Amino acid sequence: MDRPPxxxxxxxxxxxxxxxxxxxxxxxxLHVDVFERAADHRSSATxxxxxxxxxxxxxxxxxxxxxxxxxxTLDHSLIPFLGIRARLTPLTQEERCKEPGWTGSRGDIxxxxxxxxxxxxxxxxxxxxxxxxxxxxxxxxxxxxxxxDGSGSREASYDLVVGCDGAGSxxxxxxxEQVRGFTxxxxxxxxxxxxxxxxxxxxxxxxxxxxxxxxxSPPPVxxxxxxxxxxxxxxDHLWFCQVGLSGAHRFSSVxxxxxxxxxxxxxxxxxxxxxxIEAFSRRESVPIGRSKECSAMHGGRVVLLGDAGxxxxxxxxxxxxxMEAATVLDTCIGLxxxxxxxxxxxxxAAAKDFTRAWAPEAAAIRTIAHGLxxxxxxxxxxxxxxxLRLGVSxxxxxxxxxxxxxxxxxxxxxxxxxLGIAAVTMVSTLAAVCIWYWYR
Length: 440
Prior knowledge:
Blueprint: E1 6-11, H1 15-24, E2 30-35, E3 55-57, H2 60-68, H3 71-77, E4 79-80, E5 83-86, E6 93-96, E7 102-104, H4 106-120, E8 127-130, E9 134-139, E10 144-149, E11 152-157, E12 160-163, H5 170-178, E13 184-186, E14 192-199, H6 202-205, E15 212-217, E16 222-230, E17 233-246, H7 254-264, H8 274-282, E18 286-287, E19 292-294, E20 298-299, E21 302-304, H9 318-339, H10 343-369, H11 380-390, H12 394-397, H13 405-439
Parallel strand pairs: 1-2, 1-12, 2-8, 5-15, 12-21
Antiparallel strand pairs: 3-7, 4-7, 5-6, 9-10, 10-11, 13-19, 14-17, 14-18, 15-16, 16-17, 20-21
């Protein structure tokens, strides 16, 4: 007997939600509704000077893009990404990507995903995207949503709800309230805070290559500069710099902000005007060191995806991990649909499979992210450079889509153990030599 169409609701049309919608669109037995409370990505402002930091799609994100057939659209919609140029020592080091990549803002990425989704589902009702629509989870057990838009409010029940509503997920909060045994633990937070600086002097940014991300200064004042798409698209570059500090910070004057920036990177005034620095000095710093751990990635008839299920401090993997997680969930759903059984049993099994597959990966990337503390010890830079040269840096290997996040972490942990043994051996040898000289 043919299975009736499976109805899935996705709450949140960010990179995770749209990637999942793209993947599910290839399955003819499904009907998907995507709900987004914000305006249509196509009509939203192309950038926000307070939040428009650069995001690269590489490694795990590239793997996800290939899975959903998105690479050609990304070629046309985003800036090609070649790698990172970092000033961790007096010399600039270049780390090139081994495979294709792209860069842009979160808005750029969402517009590319939405464009591909709408083109692929043209003339079909398999996926419907609802903007300016609030979808509130009413019942996790029944997968019921309260949907509110300009025409009023109504309740609708689905076979599965997927929460993709970000780090402050309302869907996750309802699971805490309604699902027995589902818990959320706030992990020890890093003290990292971030403020955006618009690099608005074209005479200076023209000397930079938009295909690279620039680490202009390492911690304790971390400056990371990159380009996003301007109003005219990927050839119209806008440059922004994410300024990272330990702890919340406010500036009492423009001069104080100028002193901090020039102390970290002397040539900063060649990249941004006094007006940009003045705007920077007035912005509130945003805490970016928070993370949470869920006891499972699902509860009832609800699955959590992306930051909704595993928020972690930014280390260049937020969007990449979210996109890959979406493809893992799609694979779990596809495999269970092929096994037969009732819709409820199939989706429950898929949700459990997803937790088993992705929870360890989420834990690994969370641990990797907690290794980037802006209030770092004096050994942070030498250790980072050494591990990068040896190819054992978890932050570096996390960008490799051929390695799982667990594998990237395991490689660095082995290096940590070896470094610890070497340090103990060196100290013991030095102590023995000193004792020998003392008693000879």
